[in-house]
Amino acid sequence: MNSMKYFSLILFALTTSAVLGQGRSEKRGLSYGEYSALDLEALAPGVSWIYNWHHQPKTSVLNSHETYDMDFIPMAWNGAFNKEAMRTFIANHPKVKYILGFNEPNFKDQANMTPTEAAAKWPEIEAIADEYNLEIVGPAVNYCGNCVSENGTTYNDPFKYLDDFFAACPDCRVDHIAIHCYMNDVNALKWYVGEFKKYDRPIWLTEFAAWEGTVTLEQQKNFMFNAINYLESDPDVFRYAWFTGRFENKSPFIGILSQSSASLTALGEIYVNTPVHDPTVYSNIPGILQTENYSDMSGVKLELTNDQTGVINVSDISANDWTEYKIDVPEDNNYQTYARIAGINAGSIEIMEGSNVLATITFTSTGSYQTWDEFPAIVPLTAGEHTLRLKYKSAGFKLNWLDFKDPNILSEETDVLGDLKIYPNPSSSSIQIEAGSRWHELEIMDVVGKKFYHGQIQRSFEGLSSGTYLFKFVSQDGRTVVKKIIRR
Prior knowledge:
Layout: E1 19-20, E2 28-31, H1 37-43, E3 49-51, H2 64-67, E4 71-72, H3 83-92, E5 98-100, H4 115-132, E6 135-141, E7 149-150, E8 153-154, H5 158-168, E9 176-181, H6 186-195, E10 203-208, H7 217-233, E11 237-242, H8 266-273, E12 283-284, E13 287-290, E14 296-298, E15 301-304, E16 312-315, E17 322-329, E18 333-343, E19 347-353, E20 356-363, E21 368-381, E22 384-392, E23 397-404, E24 420-423, E25 431-435, E26 439-446, E27 451-455, E28 460-461, E29 467-475, E30 480-487
Parallel strand pairs: 1-13, 2-3, 2-11, 3-4, 5-6, 6-9, 9-10, 10-11, 12-17
Antiparallel strand pairs: 7-8, 13-23, 14-17, 15-16, 17-22, 18-21, 18-23, 19-20, 19-22, 24-25, 25-28, 26-27, 26-29, 29-30
Helix pairs in contact: 3-4, 4-5, 7-8
């Protein structure tokens, strides 16, 4: 696993928070040929390998995959593959570890090879693999319609094809099994993959998507998300690759790259950002910790979020469920933290390290599972690596992210501070506010979320008891600034 890879970087050191993600999946790949270097940049945070049914990438991006630490896997598409060109590419790219065998040989309109023909040509793949110390991935099979036939058998069944291939080639070296699947149901995918485990080899799912009947974008999103969670969790699945990169914006909605730019589609955001739950990856604090990126958990589930930010949120939370996160803290400090929550019940979340409760986030009902709000707490953290556990004390809510603020920067947007002043801080008397006309709303709460005021901005506030307060200002265009005020 490549350590410390994140979905986003800090864009402006003094004005924004980093989005903290998990390391990318070593399993996750893409089957696609017409990519650019910028496409690979967009994919790299979550995708670790690619192939294009050829022995090398197209000339314009021949070496781009190495720039983004992404494996390219050469393929012997059929028995007539260019052996010397493949040797040249592998010799010039010593990081190559695998070679893919024939592509759908039981399809007449693909490699078009009977089991006997594939067996006869297999030694040519073995010779290259032996020469360059590569592992061999077997013929990629699937159910087909227009299929090859041999000795009275028509090979519409991928299992029958592989059985007869191995019978015709008992001494052939096949280190991994390759399969394709276009079933719409994740349980069907799981069954299908499970049937190939009889060959007792690691499995590569080198093409997959939901492609039966008419598939809507929402159906494809949900299929992809649930398929990834299954494939990441199955230890017998060695690698998998989505099909494809670009596709028309119509059913079955399988494109993960934009048609007009080197950017991710909504489907691509899911493919790149669905977490792998790697316990060796630590997220840097301060920043936004996406709560789906847990290293361990008990009880909760994940779902595609309906929030305006993020891709996935934690859901189906019951009392005493928990999630854990690995974080790396730069300095001892008290970190102002906001939890992004939607739910029908009030409740609380304990932020724990070991048996110690560091802070408690208390929250009210937001009115529905579709309405999101932020609830604060102060979390004391020491410098170094930590394992934080979020212990959910109640049910009836969802959690999208935690935002650990930089303790030295109280505002999210430095450009809006010119017409907003609050003083003195600390204060032993009244608190004075000078706000421009665009600021129209103020909320005052303590660090555990108890609200003391919510309404129009006043010029001064008196009567607050000693303690630490958060003054949240909202502008007419929806911007927010939060100030931490100490009342002595």
